[in-house]
Amino acid sequence: MKLGVDTYSLRSLGWNAFEHLDYAREMDLDAVQFSERGYFETLEESYLREVKARADEFGLEVNVGMLSICPTSTWFNDERGTAAEQLTEMIGVADIVGSPFVRCVLGGRADRRTEQPLATHITATVETCRSVRDVALATGVKVAIENHAGDLQARELRGLIEDAGPEYVGACIDTGNAVWAGESPFVTLEHLAPYVVTSHIRDAAVWEHPLGAALQWLPMGDGTIGLDDWVREFERQCPNASLTVEIIAGRPPQVLNYLEQEYWEAYPDTPASEFAQFVALAKSGAPYMGSMLVADGGRGTDLPPEYEAAMTLQQRAHLDRSIRYCQDTLGIGEKRAKA
Questions:
Q1: Domain of residue 158, CATH code
Q2: pTM for the full model?
Q3: Over the stretch 167-203, which tens digit does the pLDDT of each residue have?
Q4: 121, 231, 261, 279: most buried by Cβ count inside 10 Å?
Q5: HEC assignment per residue over 55-100
Q6: Residue range of the domain that includes 77
Q7: Total count of domains within the chain
Q8: Count of C-beta atoms within a 10 Å radius of residue 291
Q9: Which is nearest to 204 in space by CA: 219, 182, 189?
């Protein structure tokens, strides 16, 4: 199975596309996922062909992505055109650089609490996908929708994919976002495995909390969600997908207050049989007790320069260690296997 890295893992370094490719070569990786268009300095064809040429020189696959393709989502930004226009543009980028998919999202957890019901956002996303069906099929580039930031649980994303058309729409499965949505990653894999084209993989600790459960994202091998066993099952069911590490650590624990009614206003249709598997993770888990700087509050966080510098060092250390864990402990990575 290919081993890749999502560039968001090193978000604080400010690297350009070529520096990310240099890093991937240094770490014996197989792929680099530029999961947002901002990682490219321009979308001009000449520049994109330079990126692809460098990647080809290093034996790397380039993967591309963007954020929301849902025009009704709180995450959607129309500065660069309609959702259909932006997705069409990124399919063109993917075609140039040789990416088999465009990773994208519906939105985030806030979309479960808008005046419009979640079903409206799902319908809008399906409509965007249908608008690019012809170009996606013509280029062979799939639309890979992620279970992202608490927006969709796996059965909801599966339904979206099946409604839009699995011949050109697939899934970017995210283990960290699964637990954010109160879902065991094993449940997520069970639903999405037939449609997975790529992944965002990181570890997490989940444990009981007076209001329900708490969770914290962690480097590979540091969590309590049984990720080693999950990776084995992922290899078995999705052998043609890449395992793409997206390490987002250094953030405070999040509380899922499922013992309060307010939580269920956002997730009213969660099957009890599926939620029970998440509760089992919490009951068997424990807080992370290792050393880690906790200062990253997410997008838009305003940190003192000294904190920023420390978080940058930690991001690199966490990612290096996670990649080595995947290679040395889990045996993932085609390039390393050939060495």
A1: 3.20.20.150
A2: 0.97
A3: 999 999 999 999 999 999 999 999 999 999 999 999 9
A4: 121
A5: HHHHCCEEEEEEEECCCCCCCCCCCCCCHHHHHHHHHHHHHHHCCC
A6: 3-338
A7: 1
A8: 6
A9: 219
